[in-house]
Every structure is written in structure tokens, then in C-alpha cells.
Design brief:
Layout (H helix, E strand, L loop, with lengths): L1 H25 L5 E5 L3 E6 L4 E6 L2 E6 L2 E6 L5 E5 L5 E2 L3 H8 L17 H5 L3 H4 L10 E11 L3 E7 H4 L2 H11 L16 E2 L2 H7 L9 E6 L8 E2 L2 E17 L4 E12 L2 E2 L8 E2 L6 H13 L2 E8 L7 E3 L15 E7 L2 E12 L2 E4 L18 H7 E9 L2 E7 H8 L3
Helix pairs in contact: 6-7, 9-10
Length: 412
């Protein structure tokens, strides 16, 4: 009997001990520390459980000619030696501006799709085009001053591993776009022409692939390298400052400084040599010229935008302040200063074959887009100062009194 009792006690003791161990395990408090590999980090406990796997989120820390790349979450650090005369970009505002350079644009011209009525009356769907447009979405007229282009080249490099996957995508894009006037790259597989085609593909995947992109700047075209380690150049850009001076429609003074970016196309004849400026073949050549003329302009412009324009910190050509209104191009009016007097350079005649049609005449019968002055013809006739021999698109331009035109623009 004693042996049986001892056996039972042993079994009971074992059950209790097992229960205590089991209970202890169930009460285990996880202590997570970060683990990582080249691309990801995650939280891991010594018991083997892990969670929250995600891509590294690097910040850049410059130290002379060495750049430390450190994940702000897990602390993983890489060190890269910059090429001579290169500086790695760490300014997040500048990176955001470069990342938002638009390459999927369309061109519209005032004499084809748009009316100068954008400038005089803003853009209000209630009167002309159907459903009413909320006040906050109305187009207002702004005075913007554009400065000189700075001397810096901004460079974006992508990991070569991701570039190879974009060629088929670009081939499809090239075939489906349907309109060569709106295809804005040289060729889907010409890697030595740096026109932004691979960067365009990358833009849709930026949040997923932040560790595959690097940003640099340099002061000379001759300093630019085709590749750095396992990274290849995909975009070269220039920048200038502009000042949104005033909402002329509401007389609201702004004087807000913004950054304006423009793609700068280059070509490497030999990937080991420095690049030269690349000029597109037709028909993209004309688009390139239009953008460059916009970007190189120095002086004041009158432009129509939704009032979200007042809040931007950076923008690019040709979209500027249009934002979600990407389906149209703003109408721009050059401001000319002669002997300290301001004038607006606006259409005077529209060319039709060998004829000059008088835009200030009430008898001239034109389509909506071409009828520049519409119900304001009499007022613009009073504001006319002198005609010029400047031809823009299908218009012959003239100079008009600045103050009288601004008075038309103001919301009454």
C-alpha cells in the first residue's frame, strides 16, 4: 500500500510541476529587440516570436565626403563614399520636390482648348460648362515672379536591380499612349539618355522601395556620373525660385517663395565620360522647347490657378499650381516693364490663313477659346498701348496697360 501511495504522490507532484511550468510559459513577457537584414527590420523576442516586419526608413547624415545612411527605426547604418564634387541631398523638402516632378503631362494651348477668360474671370463652371463649381475650386488670377535658374544639377539614382523590371512597362506605355506628342521620353530601353523614364516608373512605388533611391547634387555637368556603385542615374533636374506675389482677383498680398523644378535631359555617349545636353527628336522636341522656355523665363507672369496655389511649397513645369486640375494647362500672361512702367503682353490679332482677325472688334466671329476678350472688348480697347510684331502660337501680341487690366481681373 505504501508503494502505491508513493507512486500516486509522485504523479500528483509531476502534474503540479508541469502545470507550474505551463503556467509560467503562458505568463512569459515578450521582450522585443530589433533585428534586420539589408532590406527589412522586425521586432524579435528571445523566445523566437517576431512581428512588424517592414522596410528600412533611412535618414542621411553627411560627414564631409562620407554619407551615413541610418534607419530611424532600427538603427541599421550604411556608409557610402560620395563621388568627388557630389553632395548627397538630405533636405526632405528638396527630396519631396524632386520626387514630385511630373512627367505624365499633356499640353493645352489658349487658342485650342483654353480661353483667356481664365485670366479675366477665373474658371466658374456655373456659367459656361454645366454643374456649379464650389468657391474654393474656382480659378483665381495670380501675379508670380520667376527668378534666375540656379547653378545646381539635382541627380536621382536608382538601384540597378529595379531598373531592369521597368523596360517592359515602358514599352507598353509607349505603345498605349497613342499620341507621340504626349510621349515624353526618348526610348524605353536607351539607358544612356537620362530623360526620367525609369524614374517615372519608380514614382508609383516610392513608399515601397525607399532604400532603392539616392539623391545627389553637383555644380557642374562634367561632374555627373552615369553610375555610382550599384546605382544608375535616372533623372537630372534644375531648380529656380519663384515668388507668388499676389492674388489679383482678391487683392490678397502673398509674397510666398516657392521652388520650381524642371527636368534637364542629358546623354552619355560613353558611360565612363561626362554627359552632354540631349535634344529630343521630333515630335517630343517641340514639347521640350516649350517646357524649357517656360522654365527659363525671368520676370513676372499673370497666371490662373485654383486657390490651392497659395499653399504650395514646390512645383514643376508645366503643371505648376494646378494640382488635381491636371487636365488643363494654366494660361500665362507675360508682364513687360519699359521705363519703369508695367504692361501686359496679350493677343491683338488671331491669324487665320493670310488674314489677321481683329480680336477687339465685336464683328469678329470666333470660337469660345479664340475670342480672347469676349464681353470686355471695349475695356481692352481702352487699355491697348501699342502693337508688336511678336507672334505666339496663332496670335500677334500687343502691350496693354497693366493697371487697367488688373482692374478687370479683380472680383467686384
Amino acid at each position: 500500500m505504501k508503494k502505491v501511495t508513493s507512486c500516486k504522490l509522485f504523479i500528483i507532484f509531476g502534474v503540479i510541476l508541469f502545470s507550474l511550468v505551463l503556467s509560467s510559459c503562458s505568463r512569459h513577457e515578450h521582450i522585443f529587440n530589433y533585428s534586420y537584414d539589408d532590406n527589412y527590420h522586425w521586432k524579435e523576442c528571445e523566445c523566437g516570436e517576431h512581428l512588424d516586419k517592414e522596410l528600412h526608413n533611412y535618414e542621411l547624415l553627411n560627414d564631409n565626403n562620407l554619407t551615413h545612411e541610418k534607419c530611424v527605426i532600427c538603427g541599421k547604418e550604411n556608409q557610402i563614399e560620395n563621388p568627388a564634387n557630389y553632395k548627397q541631398i538630405t533636405d526632405t523638402k528638396l527630396i519631396d520636390g524632386l520626387m514630385n516632378i511630373r512627367l505624365d503631362y499633356e499640353f493645352y494651348s489658349p487658342d485650342r482648348q483654353l480661353s483667356y477668360k481664365y485670366i479675366w474671370d477665373g474658371y466658374d463652371l456655373e456659367n459656361k460648362f454645366g454643374p456649379s463649381m464650389p468657391e474654393e475650386e474656382r480659378f483665381y488670377t495670380y501675379l508670380t515672379e520667376y527668378k534666375e535658374t540656379n547653378n545646381t544639377f539635382y541627380l536621382i539614382y536608382l538601384n540597378k536591380d529595379v531598373i531592369s523590371s521597368y523596360k517592359e512597362l515602358l514599352r507598353t506605355y509607349e505603345q498605349e499612349i497613342g499620341n507621340p506628342q504626349n510621349y515624353h521620353f526618348s526610348s524605353y530601353d536607351n539607358e544612356q539618355i537620362i530623360d526620367g523614364k525609369y524614374f517615372y516608373c519608380f514614382q508609383t512605388k516610392y513608399n515601397e522601395m525607399r532604400d532603392k533611391i539616392k539623391f545627389f547634387e553637383t555644380e557642374s555637368l562634367e561632374n555627373i556620373k552615369f553610375s555610382i556603385d550599384n546605382y544608375q542615374l535616372v533623372l537630372c533636374a534644375r531648380s529656380k525660385q519663384a515668388i507668388i506675389k499676389e492674388n489679383l482677383s482678391t487683392s490678397k498680398k502673398l509674397n510666398k517663395e516657392i521652388s520650381v523644378y524642371n527636368r534637364y535631359e542629358i546623354e552619355f555617349k560613353d558611360i565612363n565620360s561626362y554627359p552632354t545636353y540631349y535634344e529630343f527628336d521630333l515630335p517630343e522636341k517641340s514639347n521640350q522647347a516649350i517646357l524649357n522656355n517656360m522654365f527659363e523665363y525671368v520676370g513676372e507672369m499673370i497666371e490662373a490657378f485654383p486657390n490651392t496655389y497659395e499653399n504650395i511649397d514646390y512645383t514643376c513645369f508645366p503643371t505648376l499650381g494646378l494640382g488635381e486640375y491636371f487636365w488643363c494647362l494654366n494660361v500665362r500672361v507675360e508682364v513687360v516693364v519699359i521705363d519703369n512702367e508695367k504692361y501686359m503682353c496679350l493677343p491683338r490679332y488671331v491669324l487665320s490663313g493670310n488674314e489677321r482677325l481683329d480680336l477687339l472688334s465685336h464683328e469678329t466671329n470666333l470660337f469660345f477659346e479664340e475670342d480672347v476678350f469676349r464681353e470686355y472688348k471695349s475695356i481692352f480697347s481702352e487699355a491697348l498701348v501699342c502693337e508688336t510684331d511678336v507672334i505666339e502660337s496663332f496670335y500677334i501680341m500687343a502691350l496693354y496697360d497693366y493697371d487697367k487690366i488688373v482692374n478687370i481681373i479683380k472680383i467686384k
